Amino acid sequence: MFFAAVAFACGILCGTYLWRPPLWWLVGAIIFLLAAIVFASRNAAAGMLLALAAFLCAGALQFQLAAAAVETLPDISAFTSGEEVSITAHVVRSGLLRESSQGFRDERGKPEFRQVLDVESEQINGQAVQAGIRLSLHSKPGEEFSVNTSDDDSPDLSPPPPFPYGTHIQVSGKLREPRNYGNPGAMDYVGYLRGNGIIALASARADRVQILPGFSGTRAGGFRSRLRQSLLSHMLGLASSPQKHGMLALTREDAGLLAAMIIGEQSLLDREMKADFQRTGTFHVLVVSGMNVAILAFVIFWLCKRLRAGEITATLVTIISSLAYAYVTDLGTPILRAAIMLSLYLAARLLYRDRYSLNSVGTAALIVLLAAPPTLYEPSFQLTFLSVVALSSILQPLLERTSQPYAKSLSGLDFTGIDVTLLPKLAQFRIELRMLRGRLARLVPAPPSWQLRIAHAVLIWPLRMVFAAFALFAVAAVMQLALALPMSLYFHRIAIWGVPSNMAVVPLTEVLMPAGIAATLLSYVSMKLAIFPVEVSAACLHAITWVVSHWGGSRFAEIRIASPVFTVAVLSAVCFALAMLLMRRRRFAIPLATGTLFLGAIAVSLPSLPQLRPAVAEITLIDVGQGDSVLVVSPDGHTLLVDGGGPTGGARAESFDVGEDVVSPYLWSRGITHLDAVALTHAHSDHLSGLHAVINNFKPGELWVGANPESASYRKLLTEAQAQHTEIQRHSAGEDFGFGGMDVRVLAPTAEWQPLLKARNDDSLVLDLKFGSTTALLTGDVEKRQEAFIAQYARHADLLKVAHHGSATSTTPELLEAVEPKYAAISVGAHSIFGHPKPAVLSRLAAAHVRTFRTDTLGVLTFYLDGKNVLPPVQQR
């Protein structure tokens, strides 16, 4: 069944990239199946190959049928013009009420807050529309919700409610369709939302929400929501008072970490803690993932066996518990799929037994892919499947041929009759242990009745710990090597401390999970009963956080790598397959298989050549939404990133960083792992915020800055640059220097420019880049005053990066007349809330016969300057 699942997956790939009419695949599947039946009795190998070909055709057919049956989504375009709309909906997934990251409070001490809900609309502007919407509610200090639960017209004012599942609400806000960033390597955010039933995003002020009478939804959904809220409340209730500290005291931060690990509630975690787990390769324990489900299942199965339950009983109890746990976590398809795969694996294990565990994995994967063929392309499925395959096909035989037989032979050492049932080398091992134990017993200064017991403990228990440590090391090492390819593709990380971190964290998590669950459940009866499991949980959590913060916070915790090219990815996959096959051999299996697996991991870790055009200058505007980030590549291959994008208005995202999640993936997709220089035009958040991650990920040689006020974010940027040994260079108007075959001229600000307390657009560092007879002018966000100054000194520019995202404050006729650009590029967000680019600016550019390109309509924009001409982007959208 394992090879059948692999063939089915290959068929899905064929159905994606080698489209043929579905009838062709159906006919092919029937022909190959009939041929397999005919050849099965004559030539088993030929029959198996033909059967696999039938599965391949079936996979392609199923994928194309599933693609053709995609549900038609409701059309909401009429409501996404930017005007406020009235939405009547009910809550399908509630979110925690959180204080704003800015920490604002009013005179009464009330905080600003934010809450994210998933709702299903019933009406939009009075029209019946059923659509999944992710609603962000925000408020200023002192604002309150309007709650109307009766028929009278006078609503009650109250603090913000939690909005449980099924609550009817009416809200006025702005609706927009989600959009992916138009760069290679960007996350499919639209696909992610649709996978969760969301097709639109909305934002509204909290005081415009009205709670209406009534309930919508299912009883099961309501029960699950109430159960989650109750569990979360009890977990937070386990935290000790702020005055009580210590290794065995559970703080509120610990309780938030416990909630993330057990029920997947991550809203209480800060970004830095998540980053430490990522840097140490232990992020899988921080989120409810397949590993959490597996740990819980292992504990339940072990307890059942300890209670002398039969194999069938223990399996059924474990399956039911795992599915119930996945139901409670409410984290959607990935966790439910992991629980289903685990359940199918346990059920198939009863039929195939341990030595056919790959068939169990194949059976589970095949059922999942039959139900939803696009699942093959989801990272969560790939990671889960590869993890289980690595454990079954590489780790299990590795341990069976190394430490496991010796570890098992330590049991019943005094029963010499067991020796004759073992292999000669294991029997000899037991004999030598008994002899050594006898000699140690004579040296123990204790009564004769205790000498042998003490010698046994001194000799055998350390051996057990050594074998357990080796098994733990093997698990961590095999998983790190086996998952190197998907980790490089999706996360661009090599965790230097991954193996030792997992060796420390995974056993602690195995203790933490049952202890945390026990503490939470016992707290329903009495907090006194929960004291011991709370202390165990606190000790485990503090040990875990110490490991990840100590190792994750070190400078050499990880290496960020670029996306592997296709040939390297294929080589790594082939190495993984060869390691599986070699491990089935007896002679030289272990060194050959582990060496091959190591080779595949090394292949994706080695730096590749950046994807650059030789002997031309490149100016690329990366699509960062409402912000700026420009990649400059010189004719000699030197790289400069001007600005890093970020949220507007100083907002701070808790789970999204433009520099980490947008700019860096684009650079990695180009094979770029190091930048020669980074430039900050000015210290506004939509230019500066993304540079924090860029400097840490790409460790540039130089940071170019102009004149900026000493804000906290700017000082932090300079500190991070110094920590990465990046040379900070301050530039001002009049400077002229070379950069990799290009001439760079600084046009603003002047050396005498004095920044104010807050950053201004006119602080912008303006760069004029020339190669041969072609020139590009990068203007930052300068406004009319500085543009008038620049127009006096600017030379002709073939390419103009339009200032301030196309705002009416910039792109004056004087500047256009002075530089006479052929092409203009605007970095702007789709459906900009500021109305950028302004029609007046577009009209001025059109009147000057300038061809204009925009990131909101075309995505990433790349211009090539060959020294004589400028090659504009190819308009693909």
What does this molecule look like?
Helices cover 48% and strands 15% of the residues. The strands form 4 sheets. It has an 8-stranded mixed β-sheet with strand order 18-17-16-15-14-13-26-27, with helices on one face. Strands 19-20-21-22-23-24-25 form a 7-stranded mixed β-sheet. A 5-stranded mixed beta barrel has the order 1-3-5-9-8. It is an alpha/beta fold. The chain is globular and about 100 Å long. The longest helix has 35 residues, at 448-482. 41% of the residues are buried. The chain has 29 helices and 27 strands. Strand 6 and strand 7 (156-158) form a beta hairpin.
Topology diagram in text:
Blueprint: H1 2-17, H2 22-40, H3 44-68, E1 84-93, E2 98-99, E3 113-124, E4 127-128, E5 132-138, E6 145-147, E7 156-158, E8 167-176, H4 189-195, E9 200-205, E10 209-215, H5 219-237, H6 252-263, H7 271-279, H8 283-286, H9 290-306, H10 311-329, H11 333-352, H12 357-371, H13 379-400, H14 403-409, H15 424-443, H16 448-482, H17 484-490, E11 493-495, H18 498-523, H19 531-552, E12 558-560, H20 566-582, H21 589-605, E13 617-621, E14 630-633, E15 639-642, H22 658-669, E16 677-679, H23 685-688, H24 691-698, E17 702-705, H25 712-723, E18 727-730, E19 736-739, E20 742-748, E21 766-771, E22 774-778, H26 784-793, E23 799-801, H27 813-819, E24 823-826, H28 839-847, E25 851-854, H29 855-858, E26 861-865, E27 870-871
Parallel strand pairs: 5-9, 6-10, 15-16, 16-17, 17-18, 22-23, 23-24, 24-25
Antiparallel strand pairs: 1-3, 1-8, 2-3, 3-4, 3-5, 6-7, 8-9, 8-10, 11-12, 13-14, 13-26, 14-15, 19-20, 20-21, 21-22, 26-27
Helix pairs in contact: 1-3, 1-12, 2-3, 5-6, 5-18, 7-19, 9-10, 9-18, 10-11, 11-12, 12-13, 13-16, 14-16, 15-16, 16-18, 16-21, 18-19, 20-21, 22-24, 24-25, 26-27
